[in-house]
Amino acid sequence: MPEPVTPPPVSGPAAEPSTAAEPTRPAGAPPEREFTVSERSQGQLVVRRFLQHRLAVVSLIVLAALVLLAYVGGALWRYDAGEITPDNSVAPSLAHPFGTDAVGKDQFAQVLRGTQISLQIALLVALFATIFGTLWGAFAGYFRGAVDGTLMRIADLILTLPLLAVAAMLGHQFGGTWWLVALVIAGLQWAYVSRVARGVVLSLREKEFVEAARALGASDARIILRHLIPNALGSIIVNATILVAVAILLETALSFLGFGVQSPDTSLGLLVSEAQTASVTRPWLFYFPGLFIILIALTINFIGDGLRDAFDPQQTKVRA
Amino acid sequence: MTEPVLEVEDLHVTFPTDDGLVTAVRGVSYRLRPGEVLGIVGESGSGKSVTSLAVMGLLPATARVTGSARYRGRELLGASDSELSGIRGKNVAMIFQDPMTSLNPVYSVGYQIAEAVRAHNDVSKQAAMSRAIELLDTVRIPNAAERAASYPHELSGGMRQRVVIAIAMANDPDVIIADEPTTALDVTVQAQIMQALETAKTATGAAMVLITHDLGVIAGQADRVMVMYAGKLVEAGSAEDVFYTPRMPYTLGLLGSLPRLDQKSKQLTPIVGAPPSLINMPPGCPFTPRCPLAQPVCDEIEPPLAATTSLDHLAACHFSSELVEAKPDDVFNTEVADTKALAEFVRQTEGGP
Amino acid sequence: MVAFTLRRIAISIPILIASSFVVFLLGTAAGDPLDPLLGRNPPIPQATIDAERVRLHLDQPVLERYWNWLVGLFSGDFGPSVKQNLDIGSEIFARFGITMRLIAFAMLIALVLAVVVGVVSAVKQYSVVDYSATFLGFLFLSMPAFWFAILLKQGGIAFNNTVGEQVVYTIGDASVPPPTDTFARFADIAGHIVLPTIALALISYAAWSRFQRASMLEVMNSDYVRLARSKGLSRRRVMVKHALRTALIPLVTVTALDLAAIISGAVVTETVFQWRGMGDFLLESIRTEDVYALQAWLLLTAIVVIGFNLIADLLYAVLDPRIRYA
């Protein structure tokens, strides 16, 4: 490299290395100035921000514990759900931690089974509704015009109807088993997801990277699947967690009314329904199922909040 | 020497962030005399906007501000909000960067100007509105009386910025701080805005702080110029001093990177590298990694602002004396790195259709 | 603005018609009213079943049935119920009044509470008030409405016992027979509506307050609020006239979008408190597979939701000048 200017004699203080130098720096190297922040990938950033949200992390642990309890605990527990024991209407004790009902069914087993059902339904709904709704909304948002109009009108029509009412109608016809209930709920909730996906895709499609992809000759399908949807993933995932929480509450409400999961299987909603009149006389029948519903929905809501912050942090702290 | 209308002394501003404490402003001091135009130049992230927001008390609550900022002797930092409200808009006004988001979308522009008038004057709504129309006229908005009832989204970017200027002028302030007033606008509109600012200055007699990263904007308007880098003042002096006899390599580089129509075409001098991270800044001069004059002492000791050509002309460089008579391409390497690619490019453009 | 209004109304009409078709299909899918008759013991004569089929128009092809039903609507005829003496129209409108009373009241309370809590949380961000309000909000969002309603019932009875008088009611929407004295009548209605309102309002309040907090925070950090402060306006004036004014606008849309969900919530609440409103009507119709009753229910709610969304759209345009020409 050519030297345009001859180095002048050093007129400043003696060239003594500063004692404030970092010990790990190799001797004689200039101090690191440009990158005091280590490089991270997008995924790592999201995970790191999520972990800073203490409530979300705690909720994740609690939820994981619940899942373990429901499946492993349920399998190992000495009583099965629905198994009739000779102890009728027993208050919580060592033998029956959640007590028993009038027929003698162990409530701990019942509640665990109900938790399993809620989790399974929630997972199924989240999966179906998210995949279907995302594709639907992404297509509508990407192609716009008549395609958008038609697709979203259909989604809107579903959204004008009270979900519970329609789910109850369909549940009455097709309900009973948990996966049919899940399908009914998913068959209605995809409309919410499609709205969100459409909104995100609409704003993303104007961005330069889409134009660049198109200039490189990418087909529409490829642009939607490989570019738009991955970038919309943040909003979609956050929305999916809200969906899961809503699905759980919807399923329990349906079962409460008698149009969701029905005997011989059980659901947390069904348990509450059966315990309506006993809320004062035999509170264990009423409170345990309710508290479990709250716990599941609450942990999922907090996780969703943590995810929202992780994907799109509110930068109220820094202003350059 | 006339009393300075605005006096900032040893201003430090720190923000907490996810990665650590960011010191956006590290010891800035200046004096603004009545009627004077002070230009503050610097890259994004140099701290020039933060300095002015700190003076106005408009930084977010998490910011830590130390030092002193005095308007006609009254201390602004740490003053109560009601005290500051009395000064904001009346004695010290501000013009912001993005006219598309500076105005409230649900109120008419006339209303928003009149609101500024009524904030500091006990006048009727009609009187305030006539004053608003008057101001709109002054900043050259056509059909001012009708336009006053328009909403911001009905106006172009340039017109919106002129409304913001009208708001700043409304109460004849002593100081107008214009924070990058033309950055968000097209080049053709920039001239109109600079003219509107000029009008504001003559109509109110205010001193102006003109913050920008565009040296061309400063050239025509400023009396004094301050150059900021990485939160610090690195050079300050009259416009002539700084433009014609810069004494800090960064200033020289900035001037050299400006395309000039009035000189024979030379090569531009790009300054390699990027501004430093403001978190955990190492000791020494922040410009060292990009400075062609850098020596070991630059890494260790931060140069103080010292007088160079005159007492008024300050520069923060250990080797400012090296820059006497220096031209940008003397100091910065303007040699082409890849001569082969350049030859190919020339061949293609000249041999092409 | 007028053009905007007319355009919005014009768009709503095809939506309503499309909605009516979807409603009709759903009703048909919800069950076969003849099913309960087929499984009876002693078996019902075929002639009776056939006569019933004709009475319920089930012998006609779907599209013809839809058309006849649609036309009938304009003359106020909602179709035949499986219960021979039931006039769907008059019954559903009576129930509608009862339920709308509950919904309107609950929405109002939820809205006011949500705005107050949301704004306070935003202004005092990260304070104790903010954290507790946020936590409570999440709690109510995660709480099953039916469970909470039962809890309220229990609480209401306990409250009555402590006070020694029946202040709040847990069954029905009004005493039978209703008291004659106007004040007593008013107190009676109030006492009946208080618990269901709390139950129904709570979940909407939770969602809306979080939304309002986010909206307020976003606005508080906006450039125009900063400019307003730089004008020298008092903090209060900036908060109210600039921040709050613009932060409230999106809530209008959110409220309208949530209406369908609130109606669902009302169904559950009415069931727990045994109100003879739309909720009870719905569940009864489902159980008896009363197709026309179900269609009437769905259509009425669709009209309410679409109508409410229309009003919300118009209100939004009044509040935000930017969208008046959309």
List keywords for this structure.
heterotrimer; B: 353 residues; alpha/beta; Rossmann fold; eight-stranded mixed sheet; 14 helices; 35% helix; globular; C: 326 residues; mainly alpha; MetI-like fold; 13 helices
> Helix fraction of chain C?
over 70%
From the N-terminal CA to the C-terminal CA of chain C, the straight-line distance is 10 Å
Distance between the termini of chain B: 64 Å
Classify the helix fraction of chain B into a percent range: 25-40%
- Multimer state: heterotrimer
Topology:
The complex is a heterotrimer of chains A (320), B (353) and C (326).
Chain A: H1 42-52, H2 54-76, H3 107-143, H4 145-159, H5 163-174, H6 178-204, H7 208-215, H8 220-257, H9 268-274, H10 283-311
Helix pairs in contact in A: 1-10, 2-3, 2-10, 3-4, 3-6, 3-8, 3-10, 4-6, 5-6, 5-8, 6-8, 7-8, 8-9, 8-10, 9-10
Chain B: E1 6-17, E2 20-32, E3 37-41, H1 48-56, E4 64-71, E5 74-75, H2 81-87, E6 92-95, H3 99-102, H4 109-120, H5 125-138, H6 144-147, H7 157-169, E7 175-179, H8 187-204, E8 207-212, H9 215-221, E9 224-229, E10 232-238, H10 239-244, H11 249-256, H12 296-300, E11 306-307, E12 314-315, H13 328-331, H14 339-351
Chain C: H1 2-29, H2 35-38, H3 46-55, H4 62-74, H5 88-123, H6 128-141, H7 145-163, H8 182-220, H9 223-230, H10 235-247, H11 249-273, H12 278-287, H13 291-319
Task: Describe the protein in words.
The complex is a heterotrimer of chains A (320), B (353) and C (326). Chain A has 320 residues and is mainly alpha-helical. Helices cover 65% and strands 0% of the residues of chain A. Chain A is built from ten helices and no strands. Mean pLDDT of chain A is 79; it is low at 1-28 and 315-320. Chain B has two domains: 6-222, 3-Layer(aba) Sandwich (Rossmann fold); 227-331, no CATH class. Chain B has 14 helices and twelve strands. In chain B, the strands form two sheets. Chain B has an eight-stranded mixed beta sheet with strand order 6-7-8-3-9-10-12-11, with helices on both faces. A four-stranded antiparallel beta sheet of chain B has the order 2-1-4-5. In chain B, strand 4 (64-71) and strand 5 (74-75) form a beta hairpin. In chain B, helix 4 (109-120) crosses helix 5 and helix 7 (157-169) packs parallel to helix 8 (187-204). The model of chain B has no long low-confidence stretch (mean pLDDT 86). Chain C has 326 residues and is mainly α. Chain C has helices at 2-29, 35-38, 46-55, 62-74, 88-123, 128-141, 145-163, 182-220, 223-230, 235-247, 249-273, 278-287, 291-319. Chain B binds chain C through residues 56, 58, 60, 81-82, 85-90, 93-94, 96, 98, 101-106, 115-116, 119-120, 151, 153, 164, 167, and chain C through 221-224, 226-235, 242, 245-246, 249, 319-322.
